[in-house]
Amino acid sequence: MTRGEAKVLLFENQTISTLRNNKKRDQNKPIGLNLTQSSAPSPQSFNLSHLKFVKICTELLHQGHQIKFKAPGDSMYPTIWDRDLITVEPQKSSGICVGDIVLYHHENGVVAHRVINIQVPQPSVPSTQHLFLFRGDAAIHDDAPVTSEQILGKVVSIERNGRRIDPYRLRIQLHYYSRRLASRLKRLFLRTNSITK
């Protein structure tokens, strides 16, 4: 595909348009993936469209392209709302930090959640690898641990109602950490109340 040439793939409820990345940053156009489902895929609703979406996401990110798609679901609320347009760029696991929002392979497809912990392998055990712990901003439980091979890319921007939002700006980070602290304090309060009764 030549520079700037577009290719459009159509299949069940999804439109996927691809644009090759240019070398210059100001000309860099992300690949657009439009996911029309209103929620993340569950094992019951997992179908061929989701499989194609996962395959295309994986291939494009491995080839070094950015991708852009509508977020299905609200597991990352309030940082990412349902149907927000998110841009993901390829990222090696070595460049991932706690607090990053990362797209990774999940048993039911791909998921974009926040890194809350990275477990570094012990030098005494050479066969072990980094394990990443993720959690959606709206969730109260961690996701299953993720290996380096499952990581596809990092969320670099969000678009909502035509407005671009940086998911790592200070105000959004403070909002996330204050919600997380409030959630912990609430659980601690409920636990202490149940013990005293």
Care to describe what's here?
With about 200 residues, this protein is α+β, with helices and mostly antiparallel strands. About 20% of the residues lie in helices and about 30% in strands. It has a single domain, classed as Ribbon (Umud Fragment, subunit A). The protein has 2 helices and 11 strands, in the order βββαββββββββα. The longest helix has 27 residues. It is globular, with a radius of gyration of 18 Å. The termini are far apart. The relative contact order is 0.13. The N terminus is likely disordered.
CATH superfamily: Umud Fragment, subunit A
Low-confidence stretches are 1-28, 34-48
The number of helical runs is: 2
Strand content: 25-35%
Looking at the structure, the CATH topology is: Umud Fragment, subunit A
Mean pLDDT: 75
Tell me the distance between the termini.
Answer: 68 Å
Total domain count: 1
Query: In CATH, what is the class?
Result: Mainly Beta
**Helix and strand string, N-terminal first?**
EEEHEEEEEEEEH
- Overall 3D shape: globular
Count of β-strands = 11
